[in-house]
Write a structure and sequence with these properties.
The chain is an alpha/beta fold. The protein contains 7 helices and 5 strands. The chain has one domain: Rossmann fold, CATH 3.40.50. Strands 2-1-3-4-5 form a 5-stranded parallel β-sheet, sandwiched between helices. Helix 2 runs parallel beside helix 3 and helix 3 packs across helix 7. Keywords: NAD.
């Protein structure tokens, strides 16, 4: 199994060109081995993340999370985030580097409003049935906790937009 230094977590719907630029800069200019999942890019189905990808996260030293407006619009991104925050808790030396992208800002209240109060999050909740939310309420709350935990580090902000 290949060993990676960095796991790059991003929503390909609204941050793919930024993530590709970041991937290129890290891998070719800095010589860092970055995990890039070609199969996921452009995929319509973001319901479940494969176990093999979750294992890659656990084997990395660093996770870079690009928080964009549509990041919380998929269960798979939330599963990634949950795994990343778990690794941060249980793995010595594991580092999380949040990047706030395309209008998502980390200031008290605004970040939560941008992600949880935005259209993308409401669209996501509408896609998940109320029965699924009720059955998985602990999982849902762990995703909210993972987002909160991952953003405690100040992170970097980018005013760039995809497009």
């Amino acid at each position: 199994m290949k060993s990676y230094d960095v796991y790059l977590s991003f929503c390909d719907e609204d941050a793919s060109s930024f993530a590709l630029d970041l991937y290129t800069a890290l891998s070719s200019e800095a010589g860092v081995v970055v995990f890039w999942d070609d199969e996921r890019i452009g995929s319509v189905d973001h319901r479940e993340i494969p176990t093999s990808v979750l294992n890659v996260i656990g084997d990395c030293k660093v996770a870079v999370i690009v928080f964009s407006v549509k990041y919380v619009n998929s269960i798979s991104f939330l599963q990634e985030l949950e795994k990343i925050t778990e690794c941060c808790r249980i793995t010595d030396g594991f580092m999380v580097m949040p990047v706030f992208y395309d209008g998502v800002r980390l200031s008290f209240g605004i970040f939560e409003r941008d992600l949880f109060g935005g259209k993308a999050f409401h669209d996501f909740v509408d896609k998940v049935s109320k029965e699924e939310i009720f059955q998985e309420k602990d999982k849902f709350m762990s995703w909210v906790a993972a987002i909160t935990s991952a953003t405690i580090d100040s992170g970097e902000s980018s005013d760039l937009e995809d497009g």
